[in-house]
Amino acid sequence: MSTKTLLQFNSPTRGQIDFANVIYDLVNFMEEDSKAKHRLIIGTDSRANHLSDGGAKNVEFITAIVIHRLGKGARYFWRRETKEKIHTLRQKIYEEAGFSLAAAQQLIGGLNKYLSNTDGNPGLKSPEYELEIHIDIGENGPTREMIKEIVGMIQGSGFNAKTKPYSYGASTVADKHT
Questions:
Q1: How far is Cα 8 from Cα 79, in angstroms, rounded to an integer?
Q2: 3-class secondary-structure state, position 27
Q3: For residue 165, cis peptide bond before it (omega within 30 degrees of 0)
Q4: Which residues are bridge partners to 40 per DSSP?
Q5: Which residue, 85, 100, 120, 144, is the most exposed by fewest CB within 10 angstroms?
Q6: For residue 56, what is the enclosing H or E element?
Q7: With the C-alpha atoms ordered 45, 24, 126, 112, is the resulting torsion angle positive or negative?
């Protein structure tokens, strides 16, 4: 996924904002209580619409970025992307994981720019956060056979992966907008 696909997000409180402002809001939220632990969660869910050509599907993917101050609330942002001709559940799940991975990689780059001190002056202590990618797959249903491979893909990219019932970033937050 290119940077272009992540340019615009929606915020329940701020409306439509660009990716730079998502990063800015995440950093500000963490710095409001920099001693608290934060969990940065990225999850993608999707909804398929059948096209007139038969088996192919037009699929809407919603990627959610959630910043959760443990025990003290959260904020989230979401983005919609449409892809055509998704033929199988496996392909759809891989696309969901791919959107989440791309968002995570771009977030890390953006957050590192804000949270690292590049001018040589002593800066504030960076807020502590954990990053998780939430995948909309679980032990029940047709996606159970894909758990090992999708979790392996996420972990192989250096991220923690959560599946149902612990993947609320995908199965609840992103799902709310599908």
A1: 7
A2: helix
A3: yes
A4: 67, 131
A5: 120
A6: none
A7: positive
Chain CA centroid to CA 175, Å? 12
Question: 114-173: per-residue pLDDT in tens?
Answer: 776 555 444 445 677 899 999 999 999 999 999 999 999 999 999 999 999 999 999 999
Judged by DSSP in three states, 114 sits in helix
Q: Are 170 and 67 in contact (CB under 8 A)?
A: no
**pTM of the predicted model as reported, rounded to 2 decimal places:** 0.88
Phi/psi at 70 (nearest 5 deg)? Answer: -55, 120
Q: Work out the end-to-end distance of the chain between its first and last CA atoms, rounded to an integer number of angstroms.
A: 20
Tokens of residue 7, six digits: 């340019």
**Domain segments of the chain: what residues?**
3-115+124-177
What backbone torsions phi and psi does residue 144 show, to the nearest 5 degrees? -60, -30
Scanning the structure block, which residue is given the tokens 């771009």? 106
Task: Please report where in the chains the tokens 């990063």 appear, as a residue.
Answer: 23
Are the C-beta atoms of residues 161 and 132 closer than 8 Å to each other?
yes
Task: Find out whether 10 and 79 touch, Cβ atoms under 8 Å.
Answer: yes
Q: Name the residue with tokens 């047709």.
A: 142
Both structure tokens of 109: 């780059």
Residue 135 host element (H or E): strand 128-135
